[in-house]
UniProtKB/TrEMBL annotation:
Pfam families attached to this UniProt entry: NAD_binding_1
Organism in which the protein naturally occurs: Methylophaga sulfidovorans
Catalytic activity from the UniProt record: 2 reduced [2Fe-2S]-[ferredoxin] + NADP(+) + H(+) = 2 oxidized [2Fe-2S]-[ferredoxin] + NADPH
PROSITE patterns listed in its UniProt record: FAD_FR (PS51384)
Keyword Amino-acid biosynthesis: no
Record-linked PANTHER family: FLAVODOXIN_FERREDOXIN--NADP REDUCTASE (PTHR47878:SF1), OXIDOREDUCTASE FAD/NAD(P)-BINDING DOMAIN PROTEIN (PTHR47878)
MF terms in GO: ferredoxin-NADP+ reductase activity; nucleotide binding
Protein name per Swiss-Prot or TrEMBL: ferredoxin--NADP(+) reductase
Cofactor(s) named in the record: FAD
The family this protein is said to belong to: Belongs to the ferredoxin--NADP reductase type 1 family.
Lineage: Bacteria, Pseudomonadati, Pseudomonadota, Gammaproteobacteria, Thiotrichales
Enzyme class: oxidoreductase
Length: 248
């Protein structure tokens, strides 16, 4: 297993019937907040791996991976059964461009996520750099049911520590929840409900937007931001305002 590091499970926290946070003890190389790596298990004599974002910040341990157990998923169903003391393989290098050092200048950073896509954004929010780089940071977490709004202790701590800079906007689409927006992210951005909630205007001069989660949300929200707010996709060669991660 020269291409893999071996980690020990510290905790397998189950948030609800399908959502888990797998915490691992490992001497892991340096990574950037917002990056992902691969987790793997040997299944029927074969190493099966998938990419997962690092939820913890680079200076904290254990490593934290947030995942959903997929029905009949070859790897996720086995990850869900891991217990403290079990071993798992971790790729020795993190990757991905959903990082602060890739962004162009801006005043407001929007972190728009669905489901487990909140993971890399929590890693970013638990650093000092993001609060030095932006005047306002807006975290959006869109889910179907309110029991999927996880990591609330962490989010509450961020709110307390950065109350003048941080705005948290939950979306719940399939039940009513006080203080949560209903529906989906792209529609709320398009019809103005999102800007009304934050009190900020999304524009090319002030805004940087990161998108992570359901691929349909990512593509639809990017389309709305381009067509109704004048933003464009960011790249090193052609700086813009919209950054996305594709590892599905």
């Amino acid at each position: 297993m020269a291409d893999w590091l071996t980690a020990t499970v510290v905790e397998n926290k189950q948030w609800n019937d399908r959502l888990h946070s797998l915490r691992l003890d490992i001497d892991y190389p340096e990574f950037k907040p917002g990056q992902f790596t691969r987790l793997a298990l040997e299944i029927d004599g074969e190493i099966v791996s998938r990419p997962f974002s690092l939820v913890n910040s680079p200076d904290t341990r254990p490593l934290d991976f947030y995942f959903i157990e997929v029905l009949d998923g070859r790897l996720s169903t086995r990850l869900a059964k891991l217990k403290a003391g079990d071993e798992i393989f971790v790729a020795p290098k993190a990757a991905g461009l959903l990082t602060l050092d890739q962004l162009a200048e801006g005043k407001h950073l929007y972190l728009l996520s669905t489901g487990t896509g909140i993971g890399p954004f929590l890693s970013i929010l638990n650093t000092t750099e993001v609060w030095q780089q932006f005047e306002k940071v807006i975290l959006v977490h869109a889910v179907r049911h309110q029991n999927e709004l996880t990591y609330q202790d962490n989010i509450n701590a961020i709110t307390t520590a950065h109350q003048d800079q941080f705005i948290y906007v939950p979306f719940v689409s399939r039940e009513e929840m006080p203080d949560a927006l209903s529906g989906r992210i792209p529609q709320a951005v398009e019809d103005g409900r999102f800007e009304q909630r934050t009190g900020l205007k999304i524009n090319a001069e002030d805004s940087q937007v990161m998108l992570c989660g359901n691929p349909d949300m990512v593509l639809e929200t990017m389309d709305v931001l381009i067509n109704t707010h004048g933003l464009k996709k960011h790249s090193r060669r052609d700086p813009g305002q919209i950054s996305i991660e594709k590892y599905w």
